[in-house]
């Protein structure tokens, strides 16, 4: 065989193998886009319940306290430009509009970029509330901005098809295989792989006891989780399955076809199990959304065929749907479906320049992500000027690792009223030190739980006076008998697997309320 022909054959086979593993079906990208839109809207709706408490100067973290104690991250936040509730509400509405546009695939790239910027801004306004799901959501949006999320099942795609301006050589079904698709898949696997490393560094996960402690935390378990806590053998089996999946998570990249789909389904099943057993809101659903790009074209072919079989005789009229949507949305003309961009908004020369520099930019960003995760694991040392500014270990995928929390607990905030009566100012009831009937529900929601868990740490001690002052103002605004002073207690309950769990009162702060009582 000719040497050149052999090289060409090997190169083609290698390229095909890489494309099968690092390429993404456009329908998977569409499903990811829809999921991100729904998750963003849900997250905004849940956060809006505590808009004043968490995002205004009248809440637990005024901008002055944010800048003084949290650091330069506040500079990234548009939400930190004003402490007024109406400004925060306006930004929430703007973020909701961008998320809705992303959901239906209207000017998708712009909607993705705006959603990412506003999400980063929201997170930077109160980073005390954040968890691993928030971090993953940001990253999915970030890499999604470099991908054609609107190529299928979108307003952009329908309009491009209707106006006959899409590339006649492409029907939008070709696999998307480039550095951005690789970065998206690698990012998801990094979450699992780094978490596996952290878990293996602890003793409880290796011994199979970690999950027993997790399900003994009344702060987290709910519903089915409270039932499973009584079956340690079953929980140990789940421990082994989950740790095994994490350790072998690189298989999400190495496997192809239906084998990959089945492997991804195992991860998705575990995440849905977490949603049914633990009070962690949309975190598991964000993780499931991150697994959608791993589903191959064969899966989407089968799913599409199944939908058609379930609705015989019905045909979806895309052109008619497009005309209806067009009456509701501003007029826009689009280029190729793969690009999906507004004609006239960006000059053609600029668009070509952007396409030219995208691969090296994405490549550099992917390399940065890999180095950052290696530094968080301690395998790479960052330059001193970088590590002195931000510590990668503070932003690591260490959910329940290397060991889960082994102490449960709840808050009691006894306050003295002007009349001399004592009440729990936080729960707005009589002071009770005994365990609540449902510890998880003693925190208003998951964001309050995360905030108050962080409040126990010495690093967040400077935030306690502001939290106490917020409680004073909230009580006095709705009660004639105002609160004069209060004390902040955390009732700590170490988890014991072989006996009753004792309790210990930890006093975190004493506070004298300002203003008239």
Automatic annotation (TrEMBL):
Domain HTTM-like intervals: 21-299
InterPro entries: HTTM-like (IPR011020), HTTM_dom (IPR053934), Sporulation_signal_mat (IPR052964)
Pfam families: HTTM
Keywords: Membrane, Transmembrane, Transmembrane helix
Subcellular location field: Endomembrane system
Membrane topology field: Multi-pass membrane protein
Membrane-spanning intervals of the chain: 28-46, 85-103, 241-268, 280-300, 361-382
Gene Ontology cellular component terms for the protein in this record: endomembrane system
Main localization of the protein described in the UniProt heading: membrane
The name this protein goes by in its record: HTTM domain-containing protein
Natural source organism: Halorussus aquaticus
UniProt lineage: Archaea, Methanobacteriati, Methanobacteriota, Stenosarchaea group, Halobacteria
